[in-house]
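User: My notes are a mess, but here's the protein and zinc ion's SMILES. Can you give me a structure?
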Amino acid sequence: MRALSIDDYGIDHVAVREMPDPEPGPGEVLVGIKACALNRLDIWTLTGSLGIDIAFPHILGADAAGEVLETGTDVRGYPKGTRVLINPGLSCGACELCLAGEQSECPRFSMMGEHVPGTFAERVAVPASNVFPVPEHLSFIEAAALGVTSVTAYRMLFTRGQMKPGEWVLITGIGGGLAMSLLHFARPLAGRVYVTSSSDEKIERALKLGADAGINYREKDVAKEIRHMTGKRGVDLVVDSASGDALDAGLRALRKGGRLVTAGATAGGKATINAQRLFWNQLSVIGSTMGSHNDFSEMLRYVAGSKFKPPVDKVFPFDQGAAAVRYLEAGEQFGKVVLELATPP
Ligand SMILES: [Zn+2]
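Assistant: No problem, the inputs look usable. Here's the predicted complex:
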């Protein structure tokens, strides 16, 4: 089968290569992939910046949707042809955290495409518990675009952030897939939604999608602007995936007793925060990673009910996977970058 892979670290080593066909093991489902979506994670993996030892050639990719081709032994209820999308978070399934339904807190939690071969391939074998039915209103391209960003956004806001109706929410770095999912999921419940970006154009588009106000963080002090716009009160919840300087700015934008949920470090993993502000203002800093099977399933119910379609910026034919990776790296996208497999497996 064809797979988008690397034979060494670096963007020049990304290519579609011929790889062995996977076989579904016990408890696994073999999915014929129709579309797969890129994430920033793929860039970190292929540049080696995650510091994980991987075996080359390594298949990239976390997000994908397709049809069930075959099932291994011990698998029931996944008829051939079922439209499914893959939750790429793998866990042991047997520890106390997995048994409590907190798969993303499993000590052996890993990601497809990062620690193990990924989903950018014509066929992928995954545990049956990691495949979910595609909501009826979504195409394969849209379903693939949901994946990591949607489940991460859902867990950040609701499971970890405990967002309540009417709250004022600040979403940093609008324009990427994660921030767009955060905007969509938060909008119907939030009292106000503020967004930040380094691009006025991205802010404009977010305002059209329902954000109440936006701040260009290259031009203005985000926390000061939020204080001004909220009558010095601050927001209830900040959802951030930048860290770096954005973490302290986020904390300064919170009301007393407010919460900041972080799920990424695109602006840098080291952050300086003021501990006095943290305790005096009784702030909570909460980490979040991916989501549990339950988060994934609840996210899909929300998507099905609200008829949400994740914004897709650009679709590339699978053979142009390397070009798609370069396009994502340039960071100009508004929504997801997706690969489409033209020929059915
Ligand atoms: Zn476990």
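The chain has two domains: 2-148+291-340, 162-287.
User: Great, I'll file this with my notes.
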